[in-house]
Amino acid sequence: MRWDPADPAQRRARYALLSGMWAVFFALFSWPYVALLLGALALYWGISALRATPRRPSPDAPAAPGAPAAPAGRPQTTAAVSGLVTAGLALVLVASTFTVQLVYRDYYTCVNDALTHEAKQSCDTLLPRELRGVLGTQNS
Fold this sequence. Notes:
Layout: H1 8-28, H2 32-51, H3 77-103, H4 105-113, H5 117-122, H6 132-135
């Protein structure tokens, strides 16, 4: 059996993969705090899964008839590395979101304080000309 749910290393590798994928999803759809939490968890679980040794079957346990021998590798490696990559991607997306909000704080403050649509559009002057189409309010 390749997937052993009782093996903590394999379980952490699967958790890392799932948590990393959800972290990327939440980072793309503007829930940065949830993405940050899931990305950090995926990073922790991925590293701990790669550092752990896989559980070996007990030599006293009888082998199932006709079952192939246990795989001689580390079945959790692919899932753990994939979890690390997706967690890293999610953390980069969250960090870039926070950096943009920190650098252009004046713009975001102006937009949040604007009472009318025209006032929101006048806040675009606080952005560089190249970013007005990306971050600006001209299309909304």
